[in-house]
Write a structure and sequence with these properties.
TIM Barrel, 10 helices, globular, 281 residues, binds zinc ion, alpha/beta
Length: 281
């Protein structure tokens, strides 16, 4: 069933488990995520991000994800991640996404707050949830890499003000996490997660979930992380499946797809087990 993130994440926060968000940039990914969620009776969030749109345009993603979510036997939120422009977020809304992340985290504090608050006013009128980001989560490599990531960590006082004034449903925090492959195991600032969670009272989101250790996840979830974003791990699993298929003698896409899906489903299952969302649908 197609839902927004509100009830799903509040239940996760109160129940001390995490819900996974996976980008699904093609049908194989979407099937791997949704079929596993159904098999394990786990709620899940699927979607895409603005930077991933070269893989497939938003209209096409909506055309397969939204009907698949509607028909699923478990609650599924369809989320537009890292919406960078107002126009693109409005397009996602029109296409039927039930959750929007409006990422204005590279702007100054008041600008971020104002823009996100406006997005909340629009989205809540349509029963759509909104995720904001305060502080800034950088990338592990490339142009999005931050010189001193700790300068961009989420400030707890600002987080309280930001949440109260925007009325967002979930807050993405910068606490030592980064997008993409970690060169070294990251050191998460757990005290910061704890304080922000207690003081804001809303579900927190951990971006850059691929590559964190099992104990990192367990601790982060216990302290108030309710949504964990995973892409790199499932993306690489798809490639691994193709390699396995080729080694096994597969000669066509038709023959490769089952290998691809099997590897991706294993990653989805493992994350759901780790975050404790199995059986919570
Ligand atoms: Zn992210």
């Amino acid at each position: 069933m197609l839902v927004n993130m509100k009830e799903m994440l509040n239940k996760a926060k109160n129940g001390h488990y995490g819900v996974s968000f996976f980008n699904a940039v093609n049908m194989e990914m979407a099937r791997s995520i949704i079929e596993t969620a159904e098999e394990l009776k786990a709620p899940v969030i699927v979607g895409t991000a603005e930077v991933l749109l070269p893989a497939m345009n938003l209209d096409d993603v909506a055309k397969y994800l939204i009907p698949m979510a509607k028909e699923a036997s478990v609650p599924i939120a369809v989320h537009y991640d890292h919406g960078l422009t107002f126009e693109k977020c409005m397009e996602a809304l029109r296409l039927g996404f039930t959750s929007i992340m409006y990422d204005c985290s590279t702007l100054g504090y008041e600008d971020n707050l104002e823009k996100v608050a406006e997005m909340v006013r629009i989205c809540h009128g349509m029963n759509v949830t909104v995720e904001g980001e305060l502080g800034h989560v950088g990338d592990n490599a490339g142009s999005g890499k931050l010189e001193n990531p700790s300068d961009y960590y989420t400030d707890p006082d600002m987080a309280v003000d930001f949440v109260n004034r925007t009325e967002i449903d979930a807050l993405a925090v910068a606490v030592g996490n980064a997008h993409g492959d970690y060169a070294f195991p990251p050191k998460l600032d757990f005290d910061r997660i704890d304080i922000i969670s207690q003081r804001t009272g809303i579900p927190l989101v951990l971006h850059g979930g691929s590559g964190l250790s099992d104990t990192d996840f367990e601790t982060a979830v216990k302290l108030g992380i309710s949504k964990i974003n995973i892409f790199t791990d499932i993306d690489k699993a798809g490639k691994r499946g193709i390699e396995k298929g080729l080694q096994a003698g597969a000669k066509t896409m038709m023959e490769l797809m089952p290998y691809e899906i099997e590897e991706m489903k294993a990653v989805v299952k493992e994350k759901m087990r780790l975050f404790g969302s199995i059986g919570k649908a």
